């Protein structure tokens, strides 16, 4: 009958002392069995090698060994019995090479971008806030009561940021107006049962191409007339992009009042953009207050000023006329 746990039979105590004596005499057998004595209850581990350290991929948070909780998947060490080490020289070499390659690529892109356009100068045209946007939209919609059209400069002869100067050109309103124009144009096509996803792409491409053509004509005209002005290329992009605000209002008016509303709003917004550009560009083209700007001939400057302003209503009509068939609108 088996003895209960923790109960020690007197013979066991006697057998352990015998095994100790026989062990001192060198009379042990293989497998841990003492010759002439009872079987040991526990293996003798005094001659076994020390336990191996835990692999470095074991998680100490209670997860199963070989499971990386940071990535939610088994580590390479768990797939094989060989522990995975982060000190692998090949892995470190690959990571260092990848980091250096990424840094070189970033520097190359930054240099190439700065070659064509300065990022710091581009940020200037997007330095706007909500108050500026609201005031500028109101100015573009009704510029007839505005009196001060001059642009202020700081101590370094640099123009003040648009959020501090309502007369300064910006690119935020032209970009957002262009995107909104595409959305309104798609909605107009939908009301006329002519909407096609490809139409939006064609509309965007057409608007960008005509904008590039317009800028090329203006730059070429300034070059032919040999006019040195304070206008920069991004200034021209901003001033030519303000017409998309009027184009949005023209299309919305056509949706509400059909063709009559379209042509009335086209006439009004065309007048607004011409008046706005005549007053704004007059300071930049015909101004003689800035000693760094030399304008050869006020007549030639006046001609180019009228030419730039007069082109805007023509492009506004050209880019919206194919959407003006409001009589075909589906109820």
Description:
The protein is built from ten helices and two strands; from the N terminus they run αββααααααααα. It is mainly alpha-helical and 331 residues long. The chain has a domain at 171-328. The chain starts with 9 loop residues before the first helix and ends in a 13-residue tail after the last helix.
- Given as residue ranges, the uncertain stretches (5+ residues, pLDDT < 50) are 1-7, 9-37, 56-85, 288-296
Decide which structural class fits the backbone. mainly alpha
Annotation, overall tally of beta strands? 2
**Relative strand content:** under 5%
Quaternary structure classification: single chain
Mean pLDDT: 74
Strand order of the largest sheet: 1-2
Largest β-sheet summary = 2 strands, antiparallel
The ordered H/E elements are HEEHHHHHHHHH
Q: Rg to the nearest angstrom? A: 41 Å
Shape: globular
How many DSSP helices? 10
What fraction, in percent, of the residue positions are helical? 55-70%
Question: For the terminal residues, how far apart are their CA atoms?
Answer: 99 Å
Keywords: Endoplasmic reticulum, Golgi apparatus, Membrane, Protein transport, Transmembrane, Transmembrane helix, Transport
Family: Belongs to the YIF1 family.
Function: Has a role in transport between endoplasmic reticulum and Golgi.
Subcellular location: Endoplasmic reticulum membrane; Golgi apparatus membrane
Produce a short descriptive summary.
Helices cover 56% and strands 1% of the residues. It is mainly alpha-helical and 331 residues long. A two-stranded antiparallel sheet has the order 1-2.
């Amino acid at each position: 009958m088996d003895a209960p746990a923790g109960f020690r039979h007197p013979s066991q105590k006697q057998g352990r002392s015998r095994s100790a004596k026989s062990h001192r005499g060198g009379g042990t057998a293989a497998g841990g069995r003492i010759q002439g004595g009872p079987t040991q209850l526990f293996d003798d581990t005094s001659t076994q090698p020390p336990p191996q350290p835990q692999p470095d991929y074991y998680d100490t948070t209670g997860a199963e060994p070989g499971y990386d909780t940071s990535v939610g998947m088994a580590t390479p060490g768990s797939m094989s019995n060989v522990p995975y080490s982060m000190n692998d020289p090949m892995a470190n070499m690959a990571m260092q090479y990848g980091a250096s390659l990424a840094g070189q690529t970033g520097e190359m892109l930054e240099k190439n971008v700065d070659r064509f356009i300065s990022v710091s100068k581009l940020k200037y045209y997007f330095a706007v806030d909500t108050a500026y946007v609201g005031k500028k939209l109101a100015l573009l919609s009704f510029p007839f009561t505005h009196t001060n059209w001059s642009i202020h400069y700081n101590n370094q002869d640099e123009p003040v940021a648009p959020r501090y100067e309502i007369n300064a050109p910006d690119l935020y309103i032209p970009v957002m107006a262009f995107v909104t124009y595409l959305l309104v144009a798609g909605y107009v096509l939908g009301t006329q049962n002519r909407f096609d996803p490809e139409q939006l792409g064609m509309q965007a491409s057409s608007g960008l191409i005509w904008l590039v053509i317009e800028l090329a004509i203006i730059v070429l005209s300034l070059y032919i007339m040999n006019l040195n002005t304070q206008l920069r290329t991004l200034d021209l992009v901003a001033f030519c992009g303000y017409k998309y605000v009027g184009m949005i209002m023209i299309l919305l008016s056509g949706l509400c009042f059909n063709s009559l509303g379209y042509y009335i709003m086209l006439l009004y917004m065309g007048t607004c953009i011409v008046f706005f550009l005549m007053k704004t560009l007059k300071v930049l083209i015909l101004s003689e207050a800035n000693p760094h700007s030399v304008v050869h001939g006020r007549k030639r400057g006046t001609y180019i000023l009228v030419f730039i302003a007069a082109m805007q209503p023509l492009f506004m009509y050209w880019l919206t006329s194919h959407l003006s068939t409001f009589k075909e609108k589906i109820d």
